[in-house]
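Lecture notes, unit on protein representations.

Consider one protein chain, 606 amino acids long.
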Amino acid sequence: MLRKHPYFALWALLASLIVLDFVGVQFGQIADQRFGDVLQRQLANARPAHSDIVVVNIDQKSLEDLAADAGRWPWPRSIHAELIHYIAAQKPQAIVFDLLFNERDVFRPEHDQALRAAAQAENKVYFPYLTLSDGQASPIKDLPKKLGILPQPIFDKDAKAILLLPWVLNPEQWQGGTINFNADSDGIGRHYSMYQNIAGWHIPSLPARLARDFNWPMPQAERMRIHWQTQRQHISYSDLYQAANREHSGRSMNEFTDKIVIIGTAAPGLQDLRPTTMGPLYPGVDILATAIDNLKYQDWLIESPRAPYGLLALLLCSLLAWGFARGINTMRLALGLILTSGLTLGLMWLGLTHNYYLPLFSSLLWAWAYFWLAALIAYWAEKNSREHAVALFSRFLDARVVKQLIASGDIDLGQVAQSKEITVLFSDIRGFTSLSEKHDPAAIVQLLNQYFTLQVDIIFKHGGTLDKFIGDAIMAFWGAPANDTEHAQHAVAAALEMSAALDAFKQQLSDIEHFEIGIGLHTGPAVVGLIGSASRLDYTAIGDTVNLASRIEGLTKGCARILVSDATRAACEASFAPFEFIAHGQHPVKGREQNVLLFEPKEKAL
């Protein structure tokens, strides 16, 4: 079966790779991720962020506007303290910093003290910290409870963790969680950690800490796939700070009431830009804001396990293998795959709109990979078949005609022999044995080659099919493989031109005195097609029609150079052929009970 249909061998190869991909090394996952990024970016434009989660942005404008008052970055921590008091006065739900306060300001300790005092006065302020892979580890059990680290039913009481903590603050003010960037294998951030599990201790992320404190539902997995948004409200830090220090701020006094205010930076020079689904330089503060938004409104993306979608890839490849093996037109298979791809991509989009991430794209890529490889196999198979057909049929037909017939589908090497009505012509040289005895064999061979070339050209000119050379005889027929409703007329026209060509040919012979031929034609049904063994096929015609045409050629001696049967005459007259037929009476034919009525064709006089 694999030798008969290379498409199944190709399927077996790709099926093993598909299994390896979906349940093993996952090398096709990046295609799902990247195409999912494209869809999510498009969908994000139709997903406005919720208005109660606001970003106070330390942008480039803020760095320039506050340079005179606060100096170069990093600013004195008292700047943040003043802003905390201003925002907290409006009773927000929470103030969340996306800035690390891990290094004390030894030259300006009073500014750090101002930040600690602000954090002490306002208990809704959250500060971030990081987990690190290198550094000095601390026993987790000894860390302040304000960090929100919780032991699970099974945990190691002696476990240690390497944390970058907000040492600027007092330990009782370390209310917060981690803000580690969570990148996939390709370096793109698409998820946010809910917690990190270290020896049975769950270290919460900052969004998860807020969810726990405010009783928001959370995904049970260690990380959450972010459902991206746009149009979030951003307020320039400098605008807000300057308003806070004016007697009349000019801003609404309940601007932040019941809102979550996130303070972070998007200024390019502060290096908090990350590669995400939304772009290669996406502000970290917006990643944090989106994660918090997703949790508060239970709007994160639910991920489906990738492995089951390998079945879709196998199914599509199996259907394509069946289609190619059955010989279904490649363009139809392509159209079917295009429609399937459209439906699948539509399903991915629909899933995203309902908070489901469906990794279907790589399944389509496997199907398209199979399609193009199978199409290449089909192309080469068809090309080889055409070349074989041209080589085979050029022995019987004019090569230009062969190419036209193959292009139109009239010649098909796979088609079985079938019965068709044709007109068969036999042409034989009279007295060839005697001629051979009187002349040099080399001269006879040269004579035959010249004669056969002349006559075959005429047969091809009139659309005939050369069947074979039988010694000094030629067998040809009309009506196959090309359909020809006027095959009898074309065969008779060829016979008359062959006769005229013989007369001209004889004038060129100086040492051959007697060179004559007989031509017999008969019209009737015959079995026509590729007939022979697996190693040797010939396109030929067999049946009583062929035998009778041969017998008629044998009756031309002493009667006429060309004789046709009554069936051939009737077919010519039915097509209004420009011939007249001279009756030569009835003649007995070997193998037939009834005599055969024969005619000699002539061109009609003008």
